[in-house]
Amino acid sequence: MILRPNQTQKGTISNLLKSWLPVLQADIETLYETLKDKTKDNPFVEIKSGNEVSQSARTKTANRDKYVKNSLSADIDSFNISKESLFDVLQKQIVSSLFPTKLSIDVASVIIENINDDGYFDADIDKLSEEIGVDTDFFEEVRLRFHQLEPSGVGAVDLLESFLFQLNNFELEDELFRCTTKMIKDFENLEKYQNDKYFTQSLRVIKKFQNPPAIAYKMEQVQIIPDIIIHSSDNSLKVELNESYYPDIVIDLGGIDDKYDFVKEKVKEAASLIDALEKRKATLTKVALMIIDYQYDFFNGGAIKPMKLDDLAGDLERHHSTISRAISNKYISCERGLFPIKSFFTTALGDDGEISNSEIKDYIKLLIKEENHKKPLSDNKILKEVEKKFQIKIGRRTVTKYRMQAGISSSTGRKKLYTFV
Length: 421
What we know:
By secondary structure, the chain is an alpha+beta fold. The chain has helices spanning 13-19, 21-25, 31-38, 55-63, 65-68, 73-77, 86-92, 102-113, 125-132, 136-144, 159-167, 174-185, 199-207, 215-218, 261-294, 296-299, 309-315, 320-327, 357-369, 379-390, 396-405, 411-418; strands at residues 2-3, 45-48, 228-233, 236-241, 248-252, 331-334, 337-340, 348-349, 355-356.
């Protein structure tokens, strides 16, 4: 006897949420493991991975790839990602021509073991030298030979040394090499060298450096899988649950009679789990429909409007904490990109409550994007522009917080960065 989701026993949502909250809370990538853990003591249940989908489902998924890719996909595509780890690649380069003695090879291996994911040497040289019984000068001599290894810049202790390592791999005229070296060593004061004959050429060289040096190995293929896909159809918005990635729960008694209490209990547990999975799907679908209702303008190119989690919880007649768990680490994919569901819940600002903090953040980004590179806007000037635009009063600290949340440097930091543009 085989039971599938459409044959489940129904329980109350309150009991399900209490008993199977992890099913609701798990993101789509960990849902399979969550279900496996819940059924590990149930011999009558099989959890089929979401990867075990039919060919038609795979084709359907392939046709909507443009909605599933995450924001890093363009960057990932721009790199030639090696299947080998950074550790393996470096170990292969420990050859006798660079490290001619067993001791130098041993030291090089220790250095590799202490290179972090960014490609920087991240350990105490004095302590390591003492542990392996070598002089610190010898240890440093071996480490400095890493400037000849790939990826270029690996093994450096910081950004500037990494730049110096990478510079050694460029064939430059002596004067250009000296100017570039000088600028790297005095990186905080680049303005001092603007009148140098080779200033512009040196900047072009520096712009070619990898930062961090092991970036190609850090940016492994990362894909965020959305639970919900929203797409336009016949001038309306449609919600689709990304079921291709959902596990399937199958109850199989294998011919055993279900009249025994033990069997009945296990079947009941499995049926409740199937019901919990279906409730998860239904809850997320309802959440997505409500978001479309609240944020319709956003999906048609407008701004995100103020929206409170309590409003959604009230409309769905669920507790605030239940909805919070339901949307945690969940994503919506639409024609505008991939977004965490929580990003649609913004704080209202202003007397009328019609301005969202998201609108403020977007406007700050726009101001900085269009600012004069020679005179970047201070946070105080940004504050004045925001208050003028939206006719509201907010604090400078709020502007600073929004700018930092967007990963944007201060006006002083941006002025230095603009030197490279």
